[in-house]
Structure formats: C-alpha cells, structure tokens
Hints:
Layout (H helix, E strand, L loop, with lengths): L56 E3 L2 E4 L5 E2 L4 E8 L5 E7 L17 E4 L3 H5 L3 E7 L3 H12 L6 E7 L6 H9 L4 E4 L5 H11 L5 E5 L3 E3 L3 H7 L6 E9 L6 E3 L2 E3 L5 E3 L14 E3 L6 E5 H7 L15 H11 L3 E12 L9 H5 L4 H18 L2 H6 L1 H18 L2 H8 L2 H13 L3 E2 L2 E2 L19
Parallel strand pairs: 7-8, 7-10, 8-9, 12-18
Antiparallel strand pairs: 1-2, 3-4, 4-5, 6-9, 10-17, 11-18, 12-13, 12-17, 14-15, 16-18, 19-20
Helix pairs in contact: 2-3, 9-12, 9-13
Amino acid sequence: MSCRCAAPAGCPCCSASRTPPPAGSTAPSGTNRTTSGRDSTGCASPSIAVPSTRRAPCCATCSTAASGSRTSCRRRRVTPCWRPSSRGSFAISTACARGSRAGPGAGLDRRAARPLRWTTMSDAARAVASVHVLTWNSAELVEDAVASVLAQTAGPLDVLVCDNASADGTPWRVARRFGERVRVVCYERNTGYAEGHNRAIALSDAPFVVVLNPDVRLAPTFIERALAAFDDPRVGIVAGRLMRADGVTVDSTGQFLARARRPIDRGFGRPLDPARDVAGPVLGACGAAAVYRRAMIDDIADDGAFFDEDYFAYFEDLEVAWRAWRAGWKAVHVPDAEAIHLRGGGAPRGRLGMMFDRPTPVLAHIVKNRYLAMLRHDRPAALLRDLPHVAAREVAQWALILGTRPAVVRELWRVREAFARAWHKRRADRARGGRWGAWRRDVPPRGMWRPVPGGAG
C-alpha cells in the first residue's frame, strides 16, 4: 500500500513507498486531523502526527535545505529525520549520517533517528529522569512495560520508546495507546542494545537515565526508591530487585564478575529470601532494568558513547559497570526498587548451557563480548591468579563450540577489528582521568567477584 499524504518527504506515519500526492493537494502547515481519522493530507493513520513543512539547513557546511530524498552535502551524507521545534511541534530537518560527538548530548545529527511523536520540550526539560524502553518486535510486551513506567510515583518523567526497525507494528501500537505521554523513536535498522540506548541517551538530558527491556514491569515506586540512592554523589549505578513472573524466583539483585570472567546476576534462579536481600554494594546492574546517573555517563563515555557499540548485545551492562568502577564510581543494590522481568521461563540451567541455547550469531556475540571486556579491563596478574577458573571455562566453552557450533569461529573472525579497537581503548584508559581522579588499573576487589554475604540467594 502506498501512502498518499502530502508530507514533503518520506511519510512519518508509515513505511510504505511514496507516491505522488493527489493533484492540487498542498503540504500542510501542521497537523489537522478530521473526525474520520484522516488528516488533511489524506494519511490514514489516525494517531501519528504529521510534521509541519518548515525546513532547516542540513548541516553547518552545507546550506542546502532539506529535501525529500536522500541527498549529499560537500562532506557528509544526510538522511531526513523529524525533530521537534522549540514550541513542541514538528519541523523538518536533516540528520547527518556521519559526524563527531563531543559528548552524549552532542552530535545527534549522525544518529538519524526518526521520532514519530514528541512531548513538548518543556516537559522533557524538567524531567527528573529519562526512561528508555528499547524494542524489537515487542508488540505483545511493550504496552504493559510503558504502562508501568507511566504509573510511577516519581515524576515528571521523559519516556522514550526506541524501536529497532520492528516488523510487527510495535511503535504504532505505543503511539496509538499512549499518545503525547511518550516519545516514540523509530531507528532505520536494528541497532542492537548498545547503540540503541546510546541514541536514546543523546535524545534526552535528564539527570538520571533508566534503561528498560520491554519484558520488564516496574512496581509503582521503582524509580522513586532507586533515585533516593543517588544522595551519595559517588553512586553512579543503582540495581533494583528483579523477580521472575512467579514473584518468588529471583532474576537479579545486582551484577558481579565471576573469577571465570563471566557476569553473575546475584540470586539468579533461586527463591527470594527477603531477610538476606539487603541494600549494599554491587559491581553493576542487570541491563534489563538499570538506573544510571547522567554525570557518570558523561564521565566514562567513550567519545560520547556510553555503551560500547562493538558489543551490539550481551555483556555491555557488565562492561559499563567495570568501566565505572575503574573510574571511581559506586554501584548499589536497592531491594525496595522492585520489578518483574519476564525472562524466558523453565527450570534454571547452567549459564554455559543457556549460552548454547542461543542462535549461532547471538552465541558469537556473547563469546566475543566477554573477550572484549577482558582485553580492555583485565590485568595479567589478576588473570594469572584466577587462571584455574578461567582455564576451566575456556576448555568447556571451546569444546562445545568446536563440537557443536564451529560457525562461531567464522563469526569471530568477521569482527576481528573490534579486538583491535578494544586494545586501543585499553591503552587510552591508562592515562585517563575523570571526576574522581585517575582510573584504577586493578580489577574489582574480591567482594565483587561473587555474591557477597547478605545477598539474595
């Protein structure tokens, strides 16, 4: 089906191919919905606002106005996107596909995101926290997740639903149900967890950032209780109490690093013992529901990117926690900040067994990302000390890979440049300083290697 709306460039309310508008039609100056559900442009989507036609230059080096098709300027390719004007209405502009980033909020033009619906800028500016729900074909899950965010006792909140090119109508369902209370941002491709959340961080400026999976349901006081832990200026990460859907089994009460160099979600798969699940230090938070301080994000970001985009998905939450620890930031567990994580059910299995339940490309990401984190952050003396644990893990892992998934080797070879980049980051970290002084060169203390006394499970 072709869209026949008169928006000047690529329809913002459907992904269908453009056809010329009806003869005599003109581009609207703003959204004008009729009672039949069609706007004055003839667009059939009743819930997605059509942008105005005000244009803006594509970049500082090229004064060419934005056009409807993909164009090029003297130095960078550009692609159209939608951005809000200062009055909260829509305006057409362009987004540079490549560009520099001076910080998490800078260089947004290279991110090429297309927001479908925006809250007013004044609402976003006064938000106490920005909540980012990253989706990919999550239509059956995301509405309940967003509803739990909008029911929070803390506020106001800047809520973004960022969609990784879903094919099941995820962004449209969110926009139709929640309207102006949520910003819906459609990415042009599946960016993965790391880049997807980095783009969302660049679109917001609240002092705290909450990252969520679409299969998470927050208790109404989750954000309020989590934000209370940031009274300590050194706290950069807060991990809540994540439970399974049965309300009895623990999903995570904070993240740690095993001596075999794999992430541990404390209490994973075990019944909750409230008497033992007490507030205290952890290494990091499970990326399904984590709360970060914006000042920490700015402090430890790599060229403006908080999550390492070489990771795509898996292990990126632990790598961020490891990096934050080296920079002198703290992470704490707040058991009163409760949420449900609808992770796949079934009896708990060993983590190595769970890895090999994944498709081959996903398994390759898990293996690669563990090595990337070790290459950047680990130390030879610490590896030597924990060699029996690391060696046992390597033998078991590679026996399974070579015996059942040899294609993983080919996948790792294809991304070999990521290892070179990790080595360069390691060298850059040696002289790196931040808010709390020079970065640590050691690995986390022994209390961070495994669940500490007093934790759940």
